[in-house]
Amino acid sequence: MRDFLLLLKMPNARSLLRKFLIWKYKHISERQFVYILSILVGFLAGMGTVVLKNLTHYIRHFFNLYIFKDYQSTLYFVLPIIGLLLVYIIKQTWLKKHIGHGISTTLHAISKLNGIIPRYNIYAGLITAPLTVGFGGSVGLQGPAVSVGAALGSNAARLFHMNTKTRLLLISCAAAGAMASMFKAPIAAIVFAIEIFSLDIAFASLVPLLLASVSAVVTSYFFLGTDVLLRFELIDKFEINDIAFYVVLGLVTGHMSVYFSKVFFTITNFFKQFESRAKRLLIGGLAIGTMLFLIPPLYGEGYGIMNNLLKGDHIAAIGRTPFNLDLDNIWIVIGLLFGITLFKAIAMTTTFGAGGVGGVFIPTLVMGSALGNAFAKVINNIGFGFDVSESNFTLIGMTGLMAGVLHAPLTAIFLIAEITGGYELFVPLMLVSAISFAITKYYISHSVYTLKLAERGELITHDKDQNVLMMLEIDKVIETNFVILTPDMTLGNILKNAVAKSSRNHFPVVNESQEFLGVIRLDDIRHMMFNTDLYDKVNAESLMHADAGIINYEEDTMNTIMQKFKTSGAWNLPVIKHGKYYGYISKSKLLTAYRRQLINVTH
To answer: Would you tell me the Gene Ontology cellular component terms (predicted)?
Structure first.
């Protein structure tokens, strides 16, 4: 992939591209070309996902074939640390760039970078994620798959000189393609793109999403065959008598989603206090190694847990443990399943903290499957004669955790229904998703993907006006060509060196430390401009006054700035950066920039 990008920089490649673009403008409409690009992006996203899955599979296959049969228990501790060390070396010596969480990074690129994603994101995730997961890091591949696909979509749009709106659409198409290829679930992939990326539901965006999802799924089928991640056929139908248990499961998954989010942010903040990546690797690597040694099911993504629980084989799901436990005792099994639920979130976030690259999507499903299965086992073994379907509750538990943790109830419903054929469970799927999402939303305002973005005012939502304001860059609307006054400047000096040399009608007053003290407007001195007796008697300090408001460069979002103009009634407001005067923003320039950005993202 990198060689292909370098090839495009060659003179002959640029010439061919230029000729193609000229031909395209003459023979293909913009809409038709977007459809073609969506198919291409879907194929590329599908290929990226296939590469991720295959590399991870080959690494695991090597360990299972040659190493695990003799040293399994010890290597549960050692291998994740080796994988994290390899990722650390690659980051430090080759990439030398930050690799963020896939979906969060993509959302930030959409909101603040107009969908421009650096090319290194294409190959960075393809290398580091398989090493993290293949060596046993307790994270998933879905986030890196979305990151790789989004980078491909962004750079494809830039290659063919597409506008901002089309670039954002192609990024969403790539994300949907990655999802469709990973799970072979094209419908859920479209819902995912709309729900997570706050995409407008319109014909113009729906058709490209459909084409990209189908293209990615076909690519996945071609290279990986009909094999699916979750192998399950619905046998037990929904029973209306179980509705009360599903309500309780919704409450349980909702509170467990809150627990997941709290653990994620707490451990993430803990590792942020260590500036040294080596120190993070040492602490995190030892912690994750210890957890995986004590609880082997936490090793890797965890598809084995989900598939075995859906088949009703909890012994295989739990696997071998270093403790001599009686797995014939169902309450010990229930305790272990609850332990997997609790520690999967800790192991996953610790892997991130140690420098691993992966996603939260699949660990969420693993937690949900263990929780749902354990919940059903409790019901069936408390001695009241209840008999519920453990496989169905396993599925519904996955839905509840996904709806709560990711704040994506629709994606949760359609994904589980589509990949398992469990459409007959739509009633409990919707019920548990709604309850879990409502509870999590009450305690945690945003998902693990979006909370930090929302705190910085960088989160894309379905509010188009807010999105446009968010995409504006403050530096592009700040004007710095104002004549600056000092407090001791006399009226004569002000008229000679400021008013006579400037086309502006207001002048900021600052002290020796460049701190903003106030402003003098032309109207403030108009009545004394021709009174020469005052030229040496009146100074700027006696003439200045406070401005209608202050814009804080580090803290105020564009939405906040617009609100300040609205409440103050001012047409110009000063900008303070690092406590010092920086410039002014005019309401007219801000509105002009807003209109231009609105055209970019809607036309």
So the answer is: chloride channel complex
The SS3 assignment for 272 reads: helix
Asked if residue 578 is part of any domain, the answer here is: yes
What tokens were used for 264? Answer: 């994620």
Distance CA 406, CA 440 (A): 10
Same domain, 396 and 531: no
Helix (H) or strand (E) holding 435: helix 426-443
3-state secondary structure of 277: helix
Cβ pair 551, 585 in contact under 8 A = yes
Residue 393 pLDDT level (bands cut at 50, 70, 90):
very high
DSSP 3-state percent helix, strand, coil across the chain (nearest 5): 70, 5, 25
Distance CA 156, CA 45 (A): 11
User: Which of 424, 459, 494 is the endpoint of a domain?
Assistant: 459
Residue 301 — φ and ψ, nearest 5°? Answer: -70, -45
Q: Which amino acid is at 68?
A: F
Does residue 360 share a domain with residue 280?
yes
CATH of the domain at 395: 1.10.3080.10
Residue 238 DSSP label: P
Residue 53 inside a domain? The answer is: yes
- Identify the DSSP state of 140: B
**DSSP β-bridge partners for residue 490:** 539
pTM over 0.85: no
- The DSSP bridge pattern shows strands 572-577 and 551-552 to be parallel
Task: Indicate whether 393 and 304 sit together in one domain.
Answer: yes
Distance of CA 343 to the CA centre of its chain: 23
Question: Tens digits of per-residue pLDDT, 221-233?
Answer: 888 776 666 666 6
The pair of structure tokens assigned to 320 is 């071998």
| C-alpha to C-alpha distance for 382 and 256, rounded to whole angstroms | 22
Domain that includes residue 341, residue range: 240-459
Same domain for 214 and 341?
Answer: no
Give residue-wise pLDDT tens across range 47-78: 999 999 889 888 887 776 666 555 556 677 78
- Same structural domain for residues 171 and 250? no
* Helix spans in 531-602 (H): 540-543, 558-568, 587-602
Q: Where are the alpha helices (DSSP H) in 91-141?
A: 102-112, 120-134
